[in-house]
Amino acid sequence: xxxFAPNDSFKQIGREIFHNSxxxxxEVDSLRGAADAIIGISYFLKDxxxxxxxxxxxxxxxxxxxxxxxxxxxxxxxxxxxRMTYDNAxxxxxxxxxxxxxxxxxxxxxxxxxxxxxxxxxxRNGYLEPVGNNDWYVKGxxxxxxxxxxxxxxxxxxxxxxxxxxxxxxxxxxxxxxSYMWFLGENSLRLPLFDHETMGCCDGLxxxxxxxxQGAESTLAYWISxxxxxxxxxxEHLVSARQ
Length: 243
What we know:
243 residues, mainly alpha, 58% helix, three-stranded antiparallel beta sheet
């Protein structure tokens, strides 16, 4: 609402919500909660520049991620935890977002390393295969194929969009599109999850097929991903036209 508000009324509502939430940031104890807060602050700082107090808060939250990474990472496991669960891409996404506004090379380094590791896990057969929620992927254990969830795919799309913002590498857009195609059938079961009749999105892939429930989280995950890909395509066309 703050960064992309279509009018001033929406922007002011966003500011009120944001400032009411700031006092609670220090209470966030999960890495994904910290990551979400970092991303929100990065959008705020793109709209309200030179807010040193907010930059400090963002750095404190980033410290939780970087310390977790250094504690858990090893030569064969470049990750923030000793397991990969859900919404994984949100963690490197947060550090890429913080890097864009703060310019801390440490954020970029850890975000890049963890993204490379994440890719080695979820792109195994030429298409996206998010970590299954059947016991998750514990370090040293087996990688579960199912159930795969829509929220993980949205996080990958957002990650590659943010990577493109900071690196300008076209490969990021290619990986974004490949991730998005999971919704349309380029997945383990070769089955689409987006429903063209209802305009909703099924909840995930199970060993037995598609979970036909179309929850709000999955539908929002699809449409956010869809709009992000459209925006990226428009940007790519503009760049090509200028060249």
